[in-house]
């Protein structure tokens, strides 16, 4: 037989020496050697060529080379090629996923002169071309069968439809479908499922509707499942119900695949009752007992709709029925234990995993690890990780991300270091987790190291990694690097803007935060509730009511008025801006109030000294079924402190422990020390600090020091100051406070000594800064400021007021300014903490 050579203009690439040795060892004929290992190239499709753009090289991946050669030798060593045997080999290769081998067999058959009219395996061959997902090669087989005149065969045309969908060419599939002279159920199902798999869900439903109403096709499983999946993806309950009606009409409601599809559709559409109805209406108990998939769909649906207790009950019922759960079941049940924080049930599920032999399944181990972390048992989670035989990227990523998200950033960094030593390059998700850990620890050097690694791996252009880097630099108080990172992003989404704006807010850059918020709007990016709360916190920091109203109006227009998080932020912001009436109005209009809502309004009334109204609100909170928490306690104790209600403060402090079972924290002891100190019970306040179970910080000692100054207790002040300076030797505010105490007692030498000590230590105070809003205009003042355009009038007014109060009998305490330090710093340091008011340093 003569050697068949390739068509003119096609470049051939001969076999390597090793390939020739293998072929020779199996005694492959030289003509096979000439074509089997050649690659051919052509610029475009031609019906006169035999797949001129297709590679015919032998495949060494997945399938056995020796087995392929033996099969080919058996076929091509025959005196006459057996077309049926060749077709069966093509089908076998295609079914096994060896698409290149299947196509190579057909091309060799052509080269051996096999009569094409005898070949009956074109649908299978076309399927092999579809398996390559290469539309250019797919168009070549289309041109080939067109040239041969086989497009009148409906089976071949349906195969071409499927091939185009496999290649992701919806437009080609639609054009071919519309030109078909004849269509059958396979044609329609191919289009419906093709659109569904291409995520064109509306088009999938449209073709399903056309199939039903225009052509009256009877339903089958494939079309219905695809249409149900499209309805679920669109969360279109009305379409899903229509398909359900067709399923019942055509008697397919007993099909187990369609039952699962209907349950999944209803669950994804949020119609739990309908899903339960389908599940309970299964007529065949054997179908219910024998189909684990239906149970899994129900359990997953319950979990996704927040029906956690129903999911757990159904899981127990599944075990009672004797149905053995698989990894999907266990993952779903562990997920609901994580959401419910049900540690006891999670441990029981852990035992069940071993009884069903699923302990080495990577999905189960990941879900188990996640459950232990979510339930707060980090040691058990890490033990699962260390004992895992699936020592791969998934398990490492799960362990690192859970440590970072569960408040164990140090452990996350240690695991990442171990992973880097053993495995090298992490993936993008792992980098995000480690950057979160660096943000939590404000660990800039490590964050910069991760930044360098991201650049090296090419992840710095990833939007999520870029946003995490912005957040990391902002949390590490390097706002300039955060700005630079933000400016280098090619695209910006809500997450990246949120990272920048919250970074500005955290670094006390309110003006920059507001400007960035306006810039974000100019890029037509709509804020979410988290960003709204962040911007409102900026307004609260500035205490500018007009700005708060402006932001409030914007958020109302954007549809955030009913959002609980935004409403809570508005309550707190208006209160800090001095507009308690607006806070109360928003609170009363809220349809659903949570603990934070009540705490915010209680804090607002207490901040403004409305103690009686605050306690009325507190009683209403309890009547509404809300349990007071630590934030409620802090708000009430702080209000009692500012109002001087010692008895009421002690009463609530005791009930906090006895009635509400809340363990007092440092902030609550600080409020009580401040309350006792203001009332003059200094020794009692000191004893409380010494007896409390938590370690005192400089704030609680500083509160007592201020009370010592107010009540001129020099002896206790010395003792308290020593505690403060042991904690923070470089503190200037409390040194100024102690110096002022001595000056008030007329002990100028002691005061001068402290001022000199401040100078010797090189400490410098930050000038006191205040601002006031008058007629929607903000006026900013710094201590001893002369820059305001009305400074002369302001100082003249202060002098006039001083004269008036002297006439009324008040004698101001005037202390000399030693070394340029006065008590402005002291007042500026504590005024906003004490009562939310700002002192104007003029």
From TrEMBL:
PPR repeats lie at residues 153-187, 291-325, 493-527, 594-628, 629-664. One of its GO terms (cellular component) is mitochondrion. One of its GO terms (molecular function) is mRNA binding. It comes from the Eukaryota. GO terms for biological process: RNA modification. PROSITE patterns: PPR. Keywords: Repeat. This is Pentatricopeptide repeat-containing protein. It comes from Liquidambar formosana (Formosan gum).
């Amino acid at each position: 037989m003569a050697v068949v050579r390739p068509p003119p203009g096609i470049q051939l690439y001969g076999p390597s020496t090793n390939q020739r040795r293998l072929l020779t060892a199996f005694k492959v004929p030289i003509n096979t050697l000439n074509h089997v290992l050649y690659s051919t190239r052509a610029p475009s499709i031609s019906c006169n060529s035999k797949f001129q753009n297709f590679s015919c090289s032998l495949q060494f991946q997945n399938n056995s080379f020796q087995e392929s050669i033996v099969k080919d030798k058996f076929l091509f060593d025959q005196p006459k090629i057996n077309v049926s045997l060749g077709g069966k080999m093509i089908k076998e290769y295609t079914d096994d996923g060896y698409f290149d081998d299947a196509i190579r067999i057909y091309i060799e058959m052509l080269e051996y002169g096999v009569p094409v009219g005898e070949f009956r395996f074109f649908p299978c061959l076309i399927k092999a071309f579809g398996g390559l997902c290469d539309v250019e090669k797919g168009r070549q087989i289309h041109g080939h069968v067109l040239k041969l005149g086989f497009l009148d065969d409906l089976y071949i045309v349906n195969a071409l439809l499927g091939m185009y969908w496999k290649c992701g060419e919806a437009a080609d599939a639609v054009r071919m479908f519309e030109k078909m002279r004849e269509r059958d159920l396979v044609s329609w199902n191919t289009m419906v499922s093709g659109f569904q798999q291409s995520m064109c869900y509306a088009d999938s439903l449209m073709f399903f509707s056309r199939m039903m109403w225009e052509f009256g096709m009877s339903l089958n499983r494939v079309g219905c499942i695809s249409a149900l999946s499209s309805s679920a993806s669109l969360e279109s309950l009305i379409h899903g119900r229509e398909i359900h009606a067709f399923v019942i009409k055509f008697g397919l409601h007993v099909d187990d695949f369609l039952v699962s599809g209907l349950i999944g559709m209803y669950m994804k559409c949020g119609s739990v009752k309908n899903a339960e109805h389908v599940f309970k209406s299964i007529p065949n108990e054997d179908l219910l007992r024998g189909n684990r998939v239906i149970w899994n769909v129900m359990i997953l649906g319950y979990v996704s709709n927040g029906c956690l207790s129903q999911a757990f009950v159904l899981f127990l019922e599944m075990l009672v029925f004797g149905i053995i759960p698989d990894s999907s079941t266990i993952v779903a049940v562990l997920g609901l234990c994580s959401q419910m924080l049900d540690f006891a049930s999670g441990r029981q599920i852990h035992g069940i995993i071993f009884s069903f032999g699923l302990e080495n399944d990577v999905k189960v181990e990941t879900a188990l690890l996640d459950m232990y972390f979510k339930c707060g048992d980090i040691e058990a989670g890490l033990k699962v990780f260390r004992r895992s035989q699936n020592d791969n990227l998934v398990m490492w990523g799960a362990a690192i991300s859970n440590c970072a998200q569960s408040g164990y950033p140090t452990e996350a960094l240690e695991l990442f270091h171990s992973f880097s030593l053993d495995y090298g390059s992490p993936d993008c998700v792992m980098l995000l987790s480690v950057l979160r850990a660096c943000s939590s620890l404000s660990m800039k050097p490590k964050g910069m190291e991760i930044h360098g690694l991201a650049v090296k791996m090419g992840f710095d252009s990833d939007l999520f990694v870029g946003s995490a880097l912005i957040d990391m630099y902002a949390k590490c108080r390097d706002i300039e690097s955060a700005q630079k990172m933000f400016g280098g992003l090619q695209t910006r989404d809500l997450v990246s803007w949120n990272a920048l704006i919250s970074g500005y807010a955290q670094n006390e850059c309110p003006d920059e935060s507001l400007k960035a918020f306006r810039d974000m709007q100019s890029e037509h990016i709509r804020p979410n509730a988290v960003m709204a709360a962040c911007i409102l916190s900026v307004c609260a920091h500035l205490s500018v009511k007009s700005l708060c109203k402006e932001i409030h109006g914007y958020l109302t227009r954007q549809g955030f008025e009913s959002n609980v998080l935004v409403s809570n932020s508005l309550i707190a912001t208006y209160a800090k801006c001095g507009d308690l009436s607006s806070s109360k109005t928003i609170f009363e209009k809220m349809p659903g109030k949570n603990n934070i809502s009540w705490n915010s309004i209680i804090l607002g009334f207490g901040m403004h000294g409305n103690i009686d109204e605050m306690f009325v609100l507190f009683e209403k909170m309890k009547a509404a079924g809300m349990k007071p928490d630590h934030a409620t306690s802090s708000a009430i104790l702080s209000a009692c402190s500012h109002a001087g209600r010692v008895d009421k403060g002690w009463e609530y402090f005791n009930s906090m422990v006895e009635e509400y079972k809340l363990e007092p924290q440092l902030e609550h002891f600080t409020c009580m020390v401040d309350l006792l100190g203001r009332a003059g019970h200094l020794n009692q306040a000191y004893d409380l600090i010494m007896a409390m179970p938590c370690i005192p910080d400089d704030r609680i000692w500083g509160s007592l020091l201020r009370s010592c100054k107010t009540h001129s207790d020099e002896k206790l002040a010395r003792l308290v100051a020593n505690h403060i300076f042991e904690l923070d030797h470089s503190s200037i505010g409390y040194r100024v406070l102690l110096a002022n105490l001595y000056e008030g007692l007329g002990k100028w030498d002691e005061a001068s000594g402290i001022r000199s000590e401040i100078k010797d230590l090189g400490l410098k105070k930050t000038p006191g800064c205040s601002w006031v809003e008058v007629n929607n205009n903000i006026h900013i003042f710094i201590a001893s400021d002369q820059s305001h355009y009305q400074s002369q009038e302001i100082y003249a007014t202060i002098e006039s007021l001083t004269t008036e109060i002297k006439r009324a009998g008040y004698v101001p305490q005037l202390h000399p300014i030693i070394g340029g330090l006065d008590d402005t710093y002291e007042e500026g340091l504590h005024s906003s903490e004490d009562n939310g008011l700002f002192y104007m340093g003029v």
